[in-house]
Amino acid sequence: MLPSFSPAATAAATPPPKPIPGGYGAPVLGPLRDRLDYFWFQGPEEFFRRRAAQYRSTVFRANIPPTFPFFVGVNPRVVAIVDTAAFTALFDPELVDKRDCLIGPYNPSDSFTGGTRVGVYLDTEEPEHERTKAFAMDLLRRSSRVWAPEFLEGVDGMLAAIESDLDAGKGKEGGASFLVPLQKCIFRFLCRAVASADPAAEDLVDRYGLFILDVWLGLQLVPTQKIGAIPPPLEELLLHSFPFPSILVKPGYDLLYRFLEKHGAESVGVGVKDHGMTDKDAINNILFLLGFNAFGGFSVFLPFLILQVGKDAALRARLRDEVRAALERHAGEVGFASVRGMPLVRSTVYEVLRMNPPVPLQFGRARRDFVLRSHGGEGFSVAAGEMLCGYQPLAMRDPEVFDRPEEFVADRFVGAEGEALLRYVYWSNGPETGEPAAGNKQCAAKEVVVVTACMLVAELFRRYDDFECDGTAFTRLQKRQPS
To answer: Which SUPFAM superfamilies match (predicted)?
Structure first.
């Protein structure tokens, strides 16, 4: 359990700052010990949970991967944060610099993005940040005209493939995996909606594009992730000890680049004509938005959502009733308007994001010396240049804020009191009550991610009376019976 704090104190009673507990251990050995704990002996959640309990503090010092021997210039030392109050410092551009720290102290080479430092690696004080963020927001605004129909067309193809596999008994133990069909759906609809480029125009892109993105993502992230496919000693030596070169995925990346250059000219032109970008920088930013932010995020988040709903029969019955009632008011059509009338569906989506955020870690480097405030006004002295590392899965299970924080409560965010808790939901690099802007780092697609997830749930219950899941496979799809 996380340590508990007394209710927030008044400003007059704010205690003086104190040193941050914890430490980094001996050179080489300390980072190695923490790395092995993080990957193998404890796992990320237990890694942060144990240290919070050991130091009786939700702010403490630790090392996080990656570390030696070949990560030149990477300092694994961080100030870890696992409570909602201190976590908010990560959203304050006056306190933290977000330059080149998307995934922590380790920063993949910009050769993975065609030599462009794309928007997410830029700090708000860098001149190019506002341009690239405005470009991303512009693309999303333009995509709103086709977002819902393109997504639902993709879902139609996904479910047809899953139904076929179930009917043919192709799945393991009678189930049909939804991972590849889901990724095909995500890839195709994102290309059409965001980049105005249809993968069907290029056979290689249509068939292999999603796998190219999987490898491209994996090579950048694998030094920070446990894979578990090979024995631990080999994984540490072969996957966690050095950064991977972009040359391994360059042919695939170049294929996607040429595809966007040829078929996504309309979206590229938005960056060039409206935001003063070069063709190269516009294409590389679109590819990152598609591949890392959207495709990568949805590929992690939506399976958690399907699994959570698919294993809870009582929740499915409630969701089905709400979806059917809302669709009756909108001529049976799933879309942006109809899902607004589904508070339980929306709350379920938020609760999945609270329990399993697609990006568990958020980082920022202190611009200056400042006092990091936790619950009750407890303060910790942070020095300029120190890396802050917020672990969201624990911060968003803070017992000071959430009742039954370790439980999945589908209707947690329903009603006025529930909606008030949304200010503590941080999955989008900002509070859910915040608004993305060119001057901040909050996810430009914050709202559309939630709406898209709601549409997926609504479409499932529009088609099916019930369904069940086992892991990442559907084991039963009960088609809707005529009323």
So the answer is: Cytochrome P450
